[in-house]
Amino acid sequence: SRLAGSQCGQVDIEVKDALRRIVEFFDADRGILYQVLRDEGKVFVSERVERSVQNTLPPFLDARGQFPWLHEQILVKHQAVNISSIDELPAEAALDREGLLSWESMSALFIPLSQWNTGDLILGLSCKRHHPDWSAGLLPQLRLLGETLASVLRRRDLEAEREEALRFELLMTLTSSQLASAWSDQIGTCIENALQGVLDFTKNDQAG
Asked: In 3D, which of 157, 75, 62, 77 has the Cα closest to residue 121?
């Protein structure tokens, strides 16, 4: 209910708090929301909550190269993966096991969520101990909660895109109006103002 009623500017705070509650409920050591860039096969950490872990995850990961087995199961087959102990991983997941071990993860859970236009969102939990008490009966509810997080983040991004489109439309309107009403000796100044507006909007360093 808190997520559903959150304003756009409060979404990140509420998502972080929801992830913290999930981590505490499952007594996990790390909870992460990953977003996957399909075309590049890379994963970046959208949000994280970490408890009593020494190794902090990098912001970007090469999912296809570092975790080929998990990449196949989660991103290709779109299946949830529940690893009660990394010692039980199949032989073909040897590289994945090394990666999880470097994260201090003896067990882990990954749930793929609804696809975005830019990539997949994955909810992940991990523990520094083997065989955590994660009941399989709770996984459907956890997936549903993850889908709620994905929906709220998607709404935030759509609102940001809409605001950006309105800003650009305003830039076009002002520029067109200034050019239409300018005298011949004012055209140069109007063009410079228009280019400055493009720079401010795109956050680039040069326009010509």
From this structure: 75
Return left, alpha or beta for 68; rule: phi > 0 is left, psi -120 to 50 is alpha, else beta: alpha
C-alpha R_g of the chain? 23
As a whole number of angstroms, the distance between CA 165 and CA 188 comes to 26
Pick out the chain residues at pLDDT < 70. Answer: 4-8, 38-39, 115-119
- Distance of alpha carbon 204 from alpha carbon 202, whole angstroms: 5
Q: Is the pTM of this model over 0.90?
A: no
3-state secondary structure of 46: strand
Q: What is the pLDDT of residue 8?
A: 66
Helices (H), the chain: 11-25, 63-66, 68-70, 94-102, 139-181, 187-202
CA angle 75, 79, 84 (to 5 degrees): 110
Beta strands 81-83 and 119-127, pairing class: unpaired
* Residue appearing with tokens 């304003």: 7
What is the reported pLDDT for 169? Answer: 92
